[in-house]
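In the lab's daily routine, each protein ends up as an entry in a very long ledger. A line of letters takes care of the sequence, but it says nothing directly about the fold. The fold becomes a row of whole numbers, each drawn from a learned catalogue of backbone shapes. The protein below has been through that process, and both of its lines are reproduced in full:
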Amino acid sequence: MTLEECKAAWAAAGHPGTKAERIARNAKWLSFYGYLAGKENVDAPEAHWRTSEVVETLKEEGVISAETTLLDIGAGTGAFSLPLCNTCAEVTALEMEQASVALLKRRAEKRGISNLHTVNAMWENFAPEQKYDVTFSSMCPAICDYEELLRMESMTKGTCCILAVAKGSVDLHRQKLMREIFKITPSGGMNSEASWYYDMLYLMDRQPNVKTFSRSSKSSLPVEYLVERNKIYFQIFDIAPEQSEPVLREYYSRVGVDGMVEDETCINNALIWWQVPEKE
């Protein structure tokens, strides 16, 4: 496959669209991200297995150190930004959703973190005056094609890092609802699989490094919470709450027991990092 063939194949698979289309699509996700932020506890620990393993890998590989300035693209409520502050000299958290940024700030204040800066903006409109030693993005659809990889590199003095979803990941009930119940075929705005990043970077002569992570888990959640959350989620795909609610309630009541639903999740991730070439 040539570089041009890879660009075309990735575009056909991911449907990134134009910058204006991506900005309009991003706006549809704001209510869902805001809802999730509103459900989070400011005192809850942000670290989990994926965070700790990824941060430790970046430290062990010499990607981050006490002198590092880092940009976290699509920082959310700080799952990576806050732990990275413990190692890096300065972390800039870029996040488009206001409630997530507000929660991230409160978490940083409660932990006495002073080397975190937040930027409430979309990636598509972000134009920093400085370059960062490291740019990092976790499970964020913003870096969606060749041009956005180049933009990421243009803001980077040293290393770019992307944590991407890998094949074999499973979110049991969400996938059934998407594919079998609502029969949704996403037309853009979803996360790119790790293979697209790797293939593109390889064809760009970047010599990408890769480390994979995999964890399976089970959870039990109330039917009412799942109905409420997914009413908001499926609005992203233009399914109105009055249309989705009865379908969601019937589905979760059918698969649940005593008002609780058991879910199975398998998350496969690939951490990809590469050195940005110096301009000749």
User: Anything to note?
Assistant: The longest helix spans residues 19-39. The radius of gyration is 19 Å. The chain has ten helices and eight strands.
